[in-house]
Amino acid sequence: MAQQPLLSLPEFQNVSTGTLVVKEPLNFWGGARVKPKDTTKSEPVYEPATGRVLCDLVPCGEEEVDAAIKSAHSAYLKWSKLSGMERARIMLEAARIIRERRDEIARAEVANNGKSITEAQVDIDISWQTIEYYAGIAPTLSGQHIQLPGGSFAYTRREPLGVCVGIGAWNYPFQLAIWKSAPAMACGNAMVYKPSPMTPVTAVILAEIYKEAGVPDGLFNVVQGGAETGELLCHHPMVAKVSFTGSVPTGKKVMEMAAKGVKQVTLELGGKSPLIIFKDCELENAIKGALMANFLTQGQVCCNGTRVFVQREILPQFLEAVVKRTKAITVGDPLCEKTRMGALITKPQMEKVLGFINQAKEQGAKVLCGGERFVPSDPKLKDGYFLSPCVLDNCRDDMTCVKEEIFGPVMSVLPFDTEEEVLQRANNTTFGLASGVFTRDIARAHRVAENLQAGTCYINNYNISPVEVPFGGYKMSGIGRENGQVTIEYYSQLKTVVVEMGDVEDYF
Ligand SMILES: NC(=O)c1ccc[n+]([C@@H]2O[C@H](COP(=O)([O-])OP(=O)(O)OC[C@H]3O[C@@H](n4cnc5c(N)ncnc54)[C@H](O)[C@@H]3O)[C@@H](O)[C@H]2O)c1
Ligand SMILES: C[N+](C)(C)CCCC=O
């Protein structure tokens, strides 16, 4: 097993906001960090909490993408020949390393993404759990034996696809790289991963960890870049599958590109999910659920329940309590333990969210709290991309803030009267990623879950996502699933072997 020390992690150990500068190359293939070729196209990447330059992003071009894919292919030839137990052993070692270095990885994630350290630690925990889970599944992968007449038989083999591409979004940079690579590797595939150009730092740390754990050089590679690099990956003839997380418009392009090469795709796209709160709910839990559904990661979560439908009779109590709790959210230095909301990913994203809030006001919504740029008292945070979390009342279904994904800390509250009415309104969207219902009526809870058109329905909670449960969208929110046993289907293919035990029939 390779035992190379990690180059980067010690730097993150004592990092505080406003101090980190990442200088090491951020590409990784052939088992090592690789310097970018053409630095003339370099773009700054900012630390969200301070607006300071954290590192430079140099996109990979055609030759670099090709080198990464070829490196993946040669590793795939070795890795796919290992037994599930052998793969599992190495993956468990990777999970162990991540668990051991959880805090350093979480700090690096915070510096690049801006979310609070408490949340980032949870993300890293979900990450090693995901690797453990798929390591557990790897040795169980097997086919079927099918008896045929005359002693003949057939059997099926579950085989890997080959080189898989992962393209990630910026809201869960480390976790998304693992949601894709862990099931891919368990099935015997290799991966070339492209993180979002806004969060290039932690995917390459993952590559180093996999190497340290003992995967063959080239099994997990990182290429940096934006749309152009992503397109090179999607078009490459040696790529068997693209697993994409991002927006609906980009997802459509990825699907089109993959279709040209008849490559498999998984698409994890955006959402505008409904959260339905009935008057018979346990109100305190419903309020906590609404906060979980809207304000994790500064509201930049694909499955957030941003359309909060509240039964009219309890609307005043709900609003009073939810506003009180929202105002109490500690916004500020994301590396501070008591912070519960950090900075949005970029200045343009912050401005986009403010634009949605202004438009909501113009269209008749009432801001009950927040919705403004927040400047923490610490001078080093004065240029950070902070917003005060916002609750909007007087919302209508036809407003832009209710129809479009905002991807910021903005909760739209909508009153409703009956179950039938709210189901019709909740489903009146092209998205279908998630949904939620709070009620004490068990029959109603399951009826509503059955009738909501979404890939996930949370009953009496929101936004919990243990690795054991599948995650993915209906309608325009995506195709395929991540997590759970079912994801094996999306990273493997079935071969049928038919065995004749007698003579071939004399037909001609
Ligand atoms: N369903 C999920 O699991 C999930 C999880 C996280 C985020 N999201 C969604 O992601 C969106 C926010 O993320 P984003 O702003 O990074 O999305 P995005 O679509 O702009 O970018 C996603 C990724 O695609 C790459 N990309 C951009 N153009 C490309 C092209 N033409 N070809 C190939 N790759 C290309 C980007 O560089 C990035 O790595 C939101 O809509 C959110 O809901 C979904
Ligand atoms: C872990 N969560 C909260 C379910 C988010 C999954 C990734 C989506 O943006």
TrEMBL record:
Q: Name one GO cellular component term.
A: cytosol
Return the InterPro entries for the record.
Answer: Ald_DH/histidinol_DH, Ald_DH_C, Ald_DH_CS_CYS, Ald_DH_CS_GLU, Ald_DH_N, Aldehyde_DH_dom
User: Where is the catalytic site?
Assistant: E268
Answer whether the UniProt record assigns the keyword Ribonucleoprotein to this protein.
no
Q: What is its main location?
A: cytoplasm
Localization in the cell: Cytoplasm, Cytosol
Describe the reaction catalysed, as an equation: 4-(trimethylamino)butanal + NAD(+) + H2O = 4-(trimethylamino)butanoate + NADH + 2 H(+); an aldehyde + NAD(+) + H2O = a carboxylate + NADH + 2 H(+)
The record's Pfam families line, in alphabetical order, gives: Aldedh
Q: Where is the Aldehyde dehydrogenase domain?
A: 41-497
Complex formation: Homotetramer.
The text of the family note is: Belongs to the aldehyde dehydrogenase family.
In its UniProt entry, what is this protein called?
Aldehyde dehydrogenase domain-containing protein
Q: Which organism is it from?
A: Cirrhinus molitorella
